[in-house]
Amino acid sequence: MEDKALQKTISFVKSARKKGKTNQEVRLPILFICNQNEIVSYELKGRQMIGRPYGMNQPAIPILNEYVSRQHGYFESEGKQVRYTAQKTTNGILFKGRQLPPGTSIVLEDGDELQIPIYGSNDTSCILLNVVTEYEHVQFWTNLSKLSKDDLTGLLTRKGFNARLLQKIQEMDDTSTMCVFILDVDGFKQVNDRHGHLAGDMVLKMVSGQMEESVGKSGLVCRWGGDEFIGAIEGRPRMMRNLMEQLRSRIASTAVEDGIQVTVSIGYVTIRKDQAVDMDKIIESADRALYRAKNEGKNRIIMNSDVG
Predict the structure, then answer these.
(1) pTM for this entry
(2) In angstroms, rounded to a whole number, what is the distance separating the alpha carbons of residues 308 and 305?
(3) Domain that holds residue 27
(4) Does residue 22 sit in the same domain as residue 140?
């Protein structure tokens, strides 16, 4: 994270505190989860289990880390009051430096933090869970979360995308469908070789911008790595297919500096809420469709009807 941006967010909070409470209120308590360099937020309402997604086990608040138990505990919220109850897990959860015994319930206030130790990894780091109820603290964490995104494009990175996609799937209606697609820039290595890496960076920024515009605020876009991107959007299958066709066409007709033009290949799958598939299977299925698009001539879109 950039020091200047971090200092800016800290200054915001200090300034808000000096001025007293703002006129803006938080509708629901918000949980910010800091998992390494990723920060993901969830509104707290009713009873919500936290833990690692696995098979049919899909907690309301997923934590994507292999060292986190499947059912770590749960939050219960009413208004701004938040209670956390710990469950029996392999690595437990800490509050103010002490591990909470299974079955222990605590009331959390604005700014309180829970820690999940990552035992068994190569370090002694923790996943941080921060409960926020006051506006200035929400702004602080919201600004901070922006710094956890991809440096070049400003898009989500892998863990943030996976967590938010799981969240969106859980919020879907039973009859809704969602499209998850993988996009790859055709011949990107040649762009770097012929025009240099700065030109390559401009191509990636152009592609990411076109993707964000296409999926809108309700969709998700992630830079998966290199010149590969992943997107997700909810809607009717035909509408989603048309959206991807428009995206492919716009990228092909958009030139960056020195008149560089590129094409993209896209592979996608459609999923329903009732499909018990994990993130790896969804992405693997879309990736197989992308592989076909590449082999069949590039600059095209292929659907994989087999999810998993």
Answers:
(1) 0.63
(2) 9
(3) 3-146
(4) yes
- Number of neighbours of residue 107 by Cβ within 10 angstroms: 10
Q: How is residue 110 written in tokens?
A: 């604005």
162 and 299 share one domain? yes
pLDDT in tens, 198-250: 999 999 999 999 999 999 878 889 999 899 999 999 988 899 999 999 999 99
Q: And the tokens for 210? A: 């076109």
Q: Which of 238, 244, 243, 253 is nearest to 182 (CA)?
A: 244
Point out which residues pair with 81 in neighbouring strands. Answer: 78
pLDDT digits (tens, 9 = 90+) for 265-298: 999 999 887 765 677 888 899 999 999 999 999 9
Look up residue 83 and give its amino acid.
R
How far is residue 187's CA from residue 299's CA, in Å, rounded to a whole number?
A: 10
Same domain, yes or no: 142 and 168: no
Q: What is the pLDDT of residue 154?
A: 83
- 64: how many CB neighbours lie within 10 A of its CB? 20
Does residue 163 share a domain with residue 139? no
Question: From residue 102, how far is each of 14, 94, 221, 299 by CA, in Å?
Answer: 37, 11, 38, 54
User: Is 218 within 8 Å of 229 (Cβ atoms)?
Assistant: no
Query: With 0-12 CB in 10 A as exposed, 13-18 as middle and 19+ as buried, what is 143?
Result: middle
Euclidean distance between the first and the last CA atom of the chain, given in angstroms as a whole number:
36
